[in-house]
Design goal:
Number of helices: 2
Strand content: 25-35%
Mean pLDDT: 84
Shape: globular
Largest sheet: 5 strands, mixed
Structural class: alpha+beta
Number of strands: 5
Low-confidence stretches: 1-9
Oligomer: single chain
Length: 96
């Protein structure tokens, strides 16, 4: 990924099109920051997720195919239920 691509992903919400006029976070939504791996940087909308869903982590499609696995770390804070970026999901591997 080059610097331009990296800047494009910063502040963007996973799953929103890069041509979206407002690809960034919305003030009333809850997000997890994606850290590391091919999806490093974007936010994942976790609004309405139950605590056990957050604990399970995610397998997210990448633009190159396959899925990037992201999980919360046990020692990181858990979502408080409020809006904004409330936790981080760290890259833990990839799968086809």
């Amino acid at each position: 990924m080059n610097d331009g691509d990296e800047q494009l992903l910063r502040g963007r919400v996973y799953g929103r099109d890069h041509d979206d006029p407002n690809p960034g976070p919305l003030p009333h939504q809850t997000y997890a920051a994606l850290v590391g791996g091919p999806l490093d940087g974007p936010l994942l909308d976790i609004t309405g997720w139950r605590p056990e869903e957050v604990d399970d982590g995610v397998a997210l499609m990448t633009e190159l195919g396959g899925r990037a696995l992201h999980d919360p770390r046990p020692d990181d804070p858990r979502p408080s239920g409020g809006p904004g970026v409330v936790c981080r999901f760290y890259h833990s591997g990839d799968t086809p």
